[in-house]
Amino acid sequence: MNKKKVTIRDIAKIAGVSHSTVSRSLNDNDMIPEKTRDRIKEIAKELGFEFNYSARSLSTSKTGTIGLIFPLGFDDIATGPFFNSMINGIRKQLAQTSYDTIIDFPKNPFTGESNIKKLINRRKVDGLLLVVQTLNEDEWRFILDSKIPTIFLHFRPPTSAAGKVEFVCTDNFSGGYLATEHLIQLGHKNILTFTGKEGYEFENRTMGYKTVLADNNLEVDEKKIVFCDISYDAAYECVKSSIEMIKQSSAIFAQTDIMALGIMAALKDFGIRVPEDISVIGYDDIEYGKYHTPKLTTIHQPAEKLIEMGCKRLVDKLSGKKSEKLQKVIEPTLTIRQSAAKV
Amino acid sequence: MNKKKVTIRDIAKIAGVSHSTVSRSLNDNDMIPEKTRDRIKEIAKELGFEFNYSARSLSTSKTGTIGLIFPLGFDDIATGPFFNSMINGIRKQLAQTSYDTIIDFPKNPFTGESNIKKLINRRKVDGLLLVVQTLNEDEWRFILDSKIPTIFLHFRPPTSAAGKVEFVCTDNFSGGYLATEHLIQLGHKNILTFTGKEGYEFENRTMGYKTVLADNNLEVDEKKIVFCDISYDAAYECVKSSIEMIKQSSAIFAQTDIMALGIMAALKDFGIRVPEDISVIGYDDIEYGKYHTPKLTTIHQPAEKLIEMGCKRLVDKLSGKKSEKLQKVIEPTLTIRQSAAKV
DNA sequence: CTGTTAGCGCGTTCAG
DNA sequence: CTGAACGCGCTAACAG
Q1: Whole-model pTM?
Q2: Nucleic strand D under 7 Å from the C-beta of A242
Q3: How do residues B66-94 score in pLDDT, each as one tens digit?
Q4: Cβ–Cβ below 8 Å for A95 and B108
Q5: For chain A: N or C, fewer Cβ within 10 A?
Q6: d(Cα A1, Cα A4) in Å, to the nearest integer?
Q7: Is nucleic acid strand D under 7 Å from A32's C-beta?
Q8: A33-60: per-residue pLDDT in tens?
Q9: How many helices (H) and strands (E) does chain B have?
Q10: A339 with A264: CB under 8 angstroms?
Q11: Phi, psi (degrees; rounded to nearest 5) at B247
């Protein structure tokens, strides 16, 4: 068979034209009469020809691949499901284009080297999709200087840089507000929240929690904000250490679904029923929430929409297609199931 | 700043040597005295130089990237956790090398095009890591003809091709045997198994189940093999439709952990206690199994080991390092927790 | 040991 | 409309 890689010159020879004619035909250049183009495409197809992207990149400076920077450490039960479905969503979205996807951690976990800089320097990608929380000064300068099209997905870039950068993320303040408001509307007055120890998204969710409390003339008690690692286990343990306070409350706003699951497991061990004795609302809307008993009421992050917008915009930029600058905060929505009930 | 990409010629000019000397130095060619090499490397580092991989590939035919073919549809609760941790394990393993990773579905979900062929044709990768169940004739020929180094991970290549190909997978027969044997040792005689409707891995697990039953002079009853979709929901429903048979059994071998979880949820709704009334053993050892009540007894798939072996071997092949041909079936192990008990 | 000279495969002027 | 010629950045003979 065709063991040797076929090049445009091979096609040229067969077609009896020069290799530039082949190049033009395959790139749909109007200069070449359609008849010739078709004939050449036909031959190319028969030979199973595809451009050699290395050669092509060298002369066009376009690689035809997008760099997806995606964090490490999300294979655990803590944050896994959400990010897992996110990565698949991105892959699916990109599969609709002709771009290939290089996936990398933000930093090399062994050397600490910045993969963003690496990919740019090696000229391996045309654009970047960043699912990262932070970037250091160095990386910022690099991205900006290199002018490489870049979109932040899910995480919001630092406000100082927000103007220069494109992003699409969800409104965590609004999500926190929404979750707590739902609890209030169910008649709850004494509401605890379990939040993460770090990360602006948690700060914002907590801010939403506080705000809606104040808006409804309910007391905001700092003690009711329980800081805890965002794993199932940690949430489980936190319940134990906060059990007295919990017994005096009628509802808990868990700032991740996984925490909600850990909380509910611990509650069960204490003989506290959900939602009869206490209501629980989560955040993320991971698939598993639907299968839990009781089914988890939660805040839905519109990840699909976010991914679609981000990927489309990046591809538009890369292909020179005009579209609006993307700087968008999407509103999360409330998904009512069974774990939160009237007081 | 250095807005323009720096090339080896720029370095050459600064160092007062020719560009080939720079190339040789940066590639650690012994011909160049170490002193010169160091000086040049120093300059390169200061300028933040990295090779332009397109150019490099064009002359060496090496891209410095590995293609990871990873299936679609594993973002769900059904099979998600296992494959999710697998993808992260591979990423981590590859991060220890200087290879970048292009990730792709086996086929483009929209056009149906083979991404394996695409990546090879476009000359985008040096080697392939295949986490796929099947390959069509066309793809086989392509891989073989192109002589691109390829390793099958997790899934075993069709036996007809097993000789020509390198792979590392786990022994599903042995896993099925192990799981059922554990149940037998606990004194169970009437054992059901919930298996998937398709996939050789399920066939083999079932074969292991049957074999150990026979080895222990226990009846093999085809009715006790419950075929069901491998999702949580499907398993849940299957329990309902098989409830009479279940009531006459004392143990269930669920061929995935997720099915085990669905089964246990359904059992609970029927007021059947695990493991007091019935024992359940799973397969996969997903993280969540540890958090379930009761904690799930299951078969552990040595994914880390498999990944390490596969990635190392591929990198060895790519770098020309001699190492043994990889054609290995790894034994799974039993992880005893709480969901299976003495009869 | 080092510089010069060819390509690698493709895109792109620039003539014709 | 089409072909010849050059260059992208790098590696690899081939001389010196």
Answers
A1: 0.84
A2: no
A3: 999 998 765 454 556 677 778 889 999 99
A4: yes
A5: N
A6: 8
A7: yes
A8: 888 889 999 989 988 888 999 999 988 9
A9: 14, 12
A10: yes
A11: -65, -25
